[in-house]
Design a protein that fits this description.
Layout: E1 24-25, E2 30-34, E3 44-45, E4 49-53, H1 66-74, E5 85-90, H2 128-144, E6 155-159, H3 170-186, E7 190-194, H4 197-204, E8 217-223, H5 226-232, E9 243-251, E10 254-259
Parallel strand pairs: 1-3, 2-4, 4-5, 5-6, 6-7, 7-8, 8-9
Antiparallel strand pairs: 2-10, 9-10
Helix pairs in contact: 2-3
Length: 262
């Protein structure tokens, strides 16, 4: 996003209002993405779709302007194959930092019901089993603690960037993202990936066909102009059988998004 770092009915708490919505305009087929860096700013209007960041820069935090930015996105005009409102979440794998919320077992950290971990038993170690469980826990936080009801109505994008903390093991990092996908899929959510080819390969390397990441849609940043964003729609997807659905271009510190499939 600019800082590169988702509801039928909604109940959002602890959010601040954002200022007027009508000062700027997007093109009729353009979307915009916003998050905590845009708190207090005037947001563009007449966007075709809006993508709202749930977190405040890290996976276990909350965007203080979430409610207001959701209201902004719900006013999107439509006209593309993208939902008027979708979400993105920060990701990361800080196992080597010995963070306090690193899982010690495979219990769902809110319900205390044991979760089936495809990588075996988590025992608090820096391994694939606990990485998977950590991803599950972070996705659950994104849905439950932000009080987003009926999350399955909208696409949620995983923001995968080198700017956040990642483990030295790309296998562990892949397991972490797969854990997030597993929870989101259980919640009925359609998941996509926001990343560049360079960052994605550095964090997870090659994703095998058996991975839940393999066929996900991509949202690709990196362009500075609309023509560049259009060209990026033709890039190779981040994973096999994936598809580039959205590209992003940044102009004057504003993030614009292009629906590759109109």
């Amino acid at each position: 996003m600019t800082v590169m770092t988702v509801i039928g009915s909604l109940v959002i708490v602890n959010s601040s209002a954002i200022t007027a919505y009508a000062a700027g305009r997007s093109g009729p087929q353009d979307g915009n993405d916003v998050s905590y860096p845009q708190c207090g700013q005037v947001l563009l209007s007449h966007q075709a779709f809006g993508i709202v960041g749930v977190n405040d820069g890290r996976a276990n935090t909350t965007n203080p302007c979430l409610a207001g930015e959701i209201r902004w996105a719900r006013k999107s005009s439509g006209g593309t194959r993208q939902e008027r409102l979708s979400f993105y979440v920060n990701t990361g794998n800080p196992a080597h930092l010995k963070v306090a919320d690193w899982p010690k077992n495979n219990d769902d950290h809110m319900t205390r019901v044991e979760v089936r971990d495809p990588y075996g038993r988590c025992a608090g170690r820096d391994d694939r089993a606990c990485s998977w469980q950590y991803g599950w826990n972070m996705a659950e936080l994104d849905v439950r603690t932000h009080h987003i009801s009926k999350p399955g109505r909208y696409r949620w994008w995983l923001d995968v960037e080198t700017a956040t903390s990642w483990d030295r093991s790309t296998w562990n990092n892949r397991a972490d993202l797969e854990g997030m996908v597993a929870y989101f899929h259980r919640a009925g959510v359609v998941v996509g990936i926001y990343s560049t080819a360079f960052q994605w390969y550095k964090i997870v390397k090659i994703v095998p066909p058996v991975s839940s990441l393999y066929r996900l849609a991509d949202w690709v940043p990196g362009a500075r102009t609309l023509p560049q964003a259009k060209a990026n729609c033709r890039l190779a997807p981040l994973t096999g059988r994936g598809v580039i659905s959205v590209t992003q271009w940044t102009a004057s510190e504003t993030d614009h998004d292009l629906s590759c499939a109109r």
